[in-house]
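Protocol step 4 of 6: structure prediction from sequence.
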Amino acid sequence: MYICSINFSKNFQQKTMSRFYQIFILAFWLLQNISAQQTTVIPSSFVAGNASVAYREDWIPFHNPAALAGAEKIGFALLYENRYITKELANKALNVWFPTKYINVGVAFSHFGYSEYNEMISSISFAREFGEKFRLGAEIDYYTVFLSQSERYKGAITAQVGAQILITENFSLAFNVFNPVFSKIKTDFAEKRLPTIFSIGSLYRIKNRVDWLVQFDKEVSSPLRWATGFEYSPVKEMVVRLGAYGYNSFIPTLGAGAKFGGFRFDINAAYNSALGFSLLGRLGCEF
């Protein structure tokens, strides 16, 4: 009986410490995002350096709806991001898109967190290409957050608008604004403001093999965030990505992508010197 009680006590302490550690990390992450450049429920992208505003090859949900204008086939994608190898900080996202004669339409959903605290965002996006040089997109988002068992879910509607402009055959500029209406959620005890973010970026293609992406983000009450990266395609079916971003710290990224018929797989890793690695995987299909 004495041995059993000791084992039970050790197991209980280990589980308690593990739970405490998870809650501590989650609290730290949420506090960091009070002045961060993006709300936690929006996943990172697989693009080099997370510089996705000018990325033209694919539509990444919640980043720049203008990229949806380039879709030529019906498709869907599943994305999973594990921040700092902690499942409580994971993002799960799904997006579906289909082109029409006049406008392309996309639907997306993302979930962050676990049972005690979670955030969700769903969207419907519309985009159109005007000629071969100008893309314009708009997105309507509904954001919800689970605060407690007593208050349950609180929600707010916001929007996003973006554009991509092909200046020359190898150089393009892009612009995007998230939450231009300054939406926020009010509760009995607190107020949660969604970040309002202005993004501008560029893409420069070097000899059809290397893409150089640059991006700057400015949240109205936060420091300027920069991001840059290179994407090298040794063959048409494969790409290797190397980049970095930051505003308070330097975050390097490394990734790769592959295409097989209508299927596409992308993986990306980012390293924070204080919190460790974040891994992102994405599987897409067009038909």
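Step 5 (inspection) to follow. Residues 2-32 form the longest helix (31 residues).
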